[in-house]
């Protein structure tokens, strides 16, 4: 068993476990690998698993303000990381879930020479959907709710949007008085924002969700690489936005589509079964 980890400003943070062919894992959300331990432990029996944490969030809260994140920046750094770990002519497998799935797709489109197989699980690339305008509006609403009411309200809105449940948005005229005016138009969050502003969920809602879901994939490039690409979605996500998006992406790119155990967070809910399905897909 090999256990290494590395910190660095340019490539975030990564951990290496196991032995065998190299498998790069790109987590969802803001890239914090929390909850992935079970799946990684199982995968490390067959692969050298490199778990990538683009912002280094597993090392603790970030200091200072965080800007909007760019898909290309994450995939450029992932490519540099692979270059530093692989010998000349070697290639790796990549697994990315949710926002990490969007990065995995961008990585394949732009740096195919380093990638042998890519599995993208429920990447929310909603621009491909026929109702994309409505879905982008929903994401904007999540973003605005996060700014004015904080993480919990925004996540409730996002869950409803992903699951296709109706949502009653009702103005809350009392809020400014109730929180002492802290959520005025200055863009300040609710009163407790100072402690929470750099949590992974806060960074995800404020700086990842909007730019990542509106990132346009290079479908022409992915079409040409479809033999190396598998799109996945959880069987519990059937009928929901991320499942619909993944299935359509598979269709548009001409790549395989595989159902995984669980829902959007299947890798956390059923780590061993999920890891085994992933190993099969790879």
TrEMBL record:
Q: Name one GO biological process term.
A: glycerolipid catabolic process
EC code(s) of this entry:
3.-.-.-
| Entry annotated with the keyword Hydrolase | yes
> Where are the stretches annotated Disordered?
165-197
Glycosyltransferase listed as a keyword? no
Q: Which UniProt keywords apply?
A: Hydrolase
Q: The AB hydrolase-1 domain covers which part of the protein?
A: 23-276
MF (Gene Ontology): triacylglycerol lipase activity
Domain of life of the native organism: Bacteria
Q: Polar residues composition bias: which ranges?
A: 183-197
Name the record gives this protein: Putative hydrolase YraK
> What organism, scientifically named, is this protein from?
Streptomyces olivochromogenes
Gene name, per UniProt, is yraK
